[in-house]
Each structure stands twice: as C-alpha cells, then as structure tokens.
Design brief:
The chain is built from 15 helices and eleven strands. It has about 425 residues and is α/β, with parallel strands linked by helices. Strands 1-7-4-2-3 form a five-stranded mixed beta sheet, with helices on both faces. A four-stranded mixed beta sheet has the order 8-11-10-9, sandwiched between helices. It has a two-stranded antiparallel ribbon with strand order 5-6. A hairpin with a 2-residue loop joins strand 5 and strand 6. Helix 11 runs parallel beside helix 12. The two termini are about 25 Å apart.
Length: about 425
C-alpha cells in the first residue's frame, strides 16, 4: 500500500509527522493498554494543536495484555474518534514492525488524499501481566500450525521446533545461523549490545535502564536460550506512543512543524524457521530488502542518515540491523559493536555523536511493551529531527533519520526514512 513514486514527495499532499507523544512508561504500571494509548494520543494531539474531530484516519496494532477483535476500532471508539463519517480505521499486525508499517500506511493515506490527518497508535502493558500468562501468550506467537495436509505438511515437519520460551530460542537459532555463516561474530559481541543499549537508556528519564551494565553481568546472567541470557532480552514494560501524520499542505496552514516521511520499505521472512542453519540464514534477509526499498524511495543512502533507530529485541536483531542499514558490511556487525563498546570502556561514556543509534535505549535499554517499541523509536527520531531531545541525547546535527521495525522472529521488516521539513 505504501509504495508511492518519488515525485509524490514534491506534491502538496506530502506526508509529515505533526504531533507525537508518549504515555507513562514503566514496569507494572497497572493501567490498561487502552488507558495508555488514550494518554499518548492526547499528548500527540496537543502537540499538533488539534482535537479528535480533526482526525479522519486511525491506525492501531494489537495488544498482548488486552487482546481484542478489530483492535483499532475498539481503541478509536474509546478515544472518541468514531463514530464519525468518512473516517478510515485500520488494524495492522506485522509484530514489532507494526508501528513502522502503520506509519507507511498513514503516509500513503495522506499522499493519496484519502485522509488529511491520521493517528498512529500502539500501547501495551505486558509487564503488568502475570509471568505465566505472558509466557503462554508470547509462545503462541511462534506456535507451528496444527494439522495440515499436502505440501504444507512437509514444510511444517521440516521446521525448527522451538523450546519454550519460543521467541528467545528463535532468536538464538538465528544467532547460531549467523555465527556459522560469519565466524567473526563472537558470543561477547552479542552481550556488548546489551551494554551499549543500557548506556543509551541511562540518558533517558523514562528508560528502564538507569545504569550501564557491565559485560560480565550480561554474560553471567542466567541463560534463557543457548545464545541468549536474561539481560539480552527486550525489557518487558508498559507504555504507549502516538504520532499524527498530516498532509504537508494542512501542516503548513494549521499544525505544528515536524519531519516528513520521505521513504519506506517492507519485506517478509518466514513465520517459522527451517531446521537447517543455511536455510534459516536466508529467512533473515528481509531487513536488508526493507532498507534498500526505503533508501531508494527517499533517494538516500546510509551515508546520508544522521540518526538510526535499529530494532534490538535481541542482540542478533541489532547486529543484523546494523548490517542491513549499511552501517557496516554484512558479517561485520559484531566488529562494529565491539568498536563502540571499546570507546565506551576507554572513556566511560559514549556521546550521541559517536553512537547516533537508539539514543533512547531501544528495546534492551528503554523498554518493550510488545509491539510498541518501534513507535518509541519514531518519537525519538522526531525529537532528534526537531532539536527537542534532552541535551545529553541531542545530536548537534540531525537532518535525517531512519527507523527499523522487526516483527516475529525476522518474520516482517519495515523501514521509514524521516527528514527535516
């Protein structure tokens, strides 16, 4: 849906983010996802200088803590957006890629003149769920199909059957496949990702990480999968985020300035991995495809980007994201991480200019309310592009940013390029 010719960027309907906001973010807040979304959306609309009646589009993704049929319609009703005529309401689910997928759909709706102002929202409260309930719900996301027949049956039988917890084991399997293909990636490199993200998160007042982790802490943390410790898992948290996307024409006349969405790309991997590591590696290529499409539509390359939001639910996702984004060559993500880690150890700190990636901390440092985190990255990108980030996080020069979302276990990838207006 989102693929628009590059010439559309010069049209009066070019899409722009005009408002953004976060809810409370933290552990065990005890508030429903609906409450948190309403809070974030209210802040985004106030930032944009609009009210619910100005919105004629509303996009939302599912919540694990509050599962609903047609979740976007439920949230739009609770937030007072509908009932209203000529309002587009869509539920989108590409896992952790959903926020970026929704942003790109909002871009299309605005550029095609279908909508003038679209809210993109995501919220969840997974840290308030009982641990067993969370585990069962998360495992179900990687459950192999039940009884199937024909050629599909053979594919299911050949799939890699994951132990519980299934998602960490899925990423561990992916890490094993990557390390076999690229022996330069060492186990310590994966642990260094958690150290770096905890350091980034320690600079943000809402982040789960308050202090920088030590490498030995990460490596000695109990294992949840063969190549994954507890401190290498996305931080369960509660929270929501919202952005408002509007036409450039409308933004110029009535709304607050914000970054333009100049490019986007999406690609898919697989819902479940094959047992063969070589075949598994081929299922991890969606991120690279999505980045190439996004850069092409925006007319940019990695060298033109000042800030990067790289999905980091598990370290291997971050490493492959670095490579897909073009920050380093394929197979050299571990060395890129090690170089940043060595700078941190040598000086005791790492400036945002030295490491302009996930300056809010990402999923490992800021927090991960299920499908929400890529929208946290979009909000941080908006803060960077408009010079509103706190001084210790603000880049001295930020004119362009890219945000990457990953869904499932490399099952969906979505990338958006944002640029100063």
């Amino acid at each position: 849906l989102h693929q628009i010719p590059a010439t559309a960027r010069g049209m009066k309907n070019a899409a722009q983010i005009v408002g953004w906001g976060l809810s409370e973010v933290g552990s065990r807040l005890g508030k429903s996802p609906t409450h948190l979304v309403n809070q974030a959306l209210g802040r985004a609309m106030r930032h944009a200088g609009i009210g619910p009646t100005h919105l004629d589009g509303f996009l939302a993704c599912p919540s694990l803590a509050e599962p609903r049929f047609m979740p976007a319609h439920c949230l739009a009703s609770a937030c007072g957006i509908i009932p209203r005529s000529n309002t587009v309401v869509l539920s989108v689910d590409t896992g952790g890629a959903s926020p970026v997928s929704m942003l790109l759909q909002a871009k299309t709706l605005v550029e095609r003149g279908v909508c003038s102002a679209v809210a993109v929202v995501a919220g969840d409260a997974v840290s308030s769920m009982p641990s067993q309930a969370f585990l069962e719900a998360a495992d179900s996301a990687c459950q192999l199909p039940g009884k199937v027949e024909g050629g599909v049956e053979a594919k299911v039988k050949a799939a890699h059957h994951l132990e519980s917890p299934k998602i960490p084991h899925g990423y561990s399997h992916a890490a094993e496949a990557h390390m076999k293909a690229y022996p330069k990636l060492k186990r310590e490199h994966l642990a260094m990702v958690s150290v770096l993200m905890s350091h980034q998160g320690s600079k943000h007042p809402l982040a789960a990480s308050k202090l920088t982790l030590q490498l030995h802490q990460v490596l000695s943390s109990p294992l949840v999968a063969p190549h994954t410790s507890q401190l290498e898992c996305a931080r369960r948290s509660d929270g929501a985020a919202a952005v408002v996307v509007a036409s450039d024409h409308l933004a110029a006349t009535s709304l607050a300035p914000g970054p333009r969405i100049t490019g986007g790309g999406e690609a898919s991997g697989a819902a479940f991995f094959p047992s063969d590591l070589g075949d598994t590696l081929r299922c991890l290529e969606g991120g690279g495809d999505a980045f190439r499409k996004a850069y092409q539509e925006a007319g940019r390359s990695s060298g033109d980007i000042d800030w990067f939001g790289i999905y980091d639910c598990y370290p291997i996702c971050f490493v492959r994201g670095l490579e897909a984004a073009g920050l380093c060559a394929e197979g050299e993500g571990g060395e890129y991480v090690e170089a940043a880690y060595n700078k941190l150890i040598k000086s005791g700190s790492l400036s945002c200019g030295e490491f302009p990636i996930n300056t809010h901390g990402g999923l490992l440092g800021f927090g991960a309310p299920w499908e929400v985190p890529a929208l946290f990255s979009v909000v941080e990108a908006c803060e960077q592009l408009t010079g509103r980030a706190a001084s210790e996080r603000q880049l001295s020069r930020c004119r362009s940013a890219v945000v990457y979302g990953n869904g499932g276990v490399f099952g969906a990838s979505a990338v958006a390029v944002l640029e100063q207006r």
